[in-house]
Please model this.
Amino acid sequence: EPEVTQTPSHQVTQMGQEVILRCVPISNHLYFYWYRQILGQKVEFLVSFYNNEISEKSEIFDDQFSVERPDGSNFTLKIRSTKLEDSAMYFCASRDTGTHEQFFGPGTRLTVL
Amino acid sequence: GQNIDQPTEMTATEGAIVQINCTYQTSGFNGLFWYQQHAGEAPTFLSYNVLDGLEEKGRFSSFLSRSKGYSYLLLKELQMKDSASYLCAVRPLAGTALIFGKGTTLSVSS
Model:
């Protein structure tokens, strides 16, 4: 069964450093999303991406964040100058055209020290 | 604004039936979703409702009343593996992003 994959599973970084979280969406899906979940809190929407551009973003997704689809399979989230409060689980999700279900990847746990 | 409320915790025993409620107040509405999330894992899709009524899928059913801003997830014949968080999420009219509630942690005991 096709699935969304994410790498790395766990990333530890120092405050102020840049990190890139990687996702491989399901191959025929065209809609991509990033969500985050701070430990013990709810899942929060960050950004959605379609046709090589951002289609929607939340107030969390400020200039510190960027997304890119560098090739036909990868979808990345870059966080510049990380802060302690960026520590969270980051989930990538993808969705097929004409369907409602978003398929979530296993997540990357980001720890900022 | 967006507000989605669900109980924080629920407990039940194996073989029982449990109903998890969700109320929402959102600026738009284009569907309500239920996801299951085991500790430390990704959310997995359970159900989608956009019209009023009950959607049944095996042991799980989901109900929606748009006029009341209310949904519930019904789990029958509970099993230990059903111990997880159940997330209610709304897709506002304006886009396809999901807005999640805080989730209901269900503990199933034998």
The two ends of chain B are 41 Å apart (CA to CA). The CA atoms of residues 52 and 83 of chain B lie 28 Å apart. The mean pLDDT of chain B is 95. The first strand of chain B starts at residue 3 and ends at 5.
